[in-house]
Amino acid sequence: MNCRLGCGACCIAPSITSAIPGMPNGKPAGVRCIQLNDANLCMIFGQPERPEVCAEFSASVDVCGTSNDQALWLITDLESSTC
């Protein structure tokens, strides 16, 4: 599955513990990444400063569902289940 452009759920729902440019301590779950633009696209996609966890994320129906809203719900649920 390819990412849905403009979704951004993976940049909002999960916590990220590694440093992100502009967020040196990472980000808590449910907080929008500072690198996510108004169109819900990553402004550091493909750049070396992008966290490895972000670069390794692969979209799948199990995690992203069939809509942006479903992706946000599924990833939020997964995050809360793993804390």
Helix content class: 25-40%
Low-confidence stretches: none
Overall shape:
globular
The total count of strands amounts to 0
Please work out how many helical segments DSSP would assign: 3
How confident overall, as mean pLDDT? 96
Gyration radius, in Å: 12 Å
Report the major sheet.
none
Distance between the termini: 26 Å
Class computed from helices, strands and strand pairing: mainly alpha
What features would you highlight for this structure?
83 residues; mainly alpha; 29% helix
Topology:
Blueprint: H1 52-56, H2 61-64, H3 68-82
Would you give an account of this structure?
- The chain has 83 residues and is mostly helical.
- Helices cover 29% and strands 0% of the residues.
- The chain has 3 helices and no strands.
- The longest helix is centred in the last third of the chain and has 15 residues, at 68-82.
- It is globular and about 30 Å long.
- The N and C termini lie far apart (26 Å).
Summarize the structure.
By secondary structure, this protein is mainly alpha-helical. The protein has 3 helices and no strands.
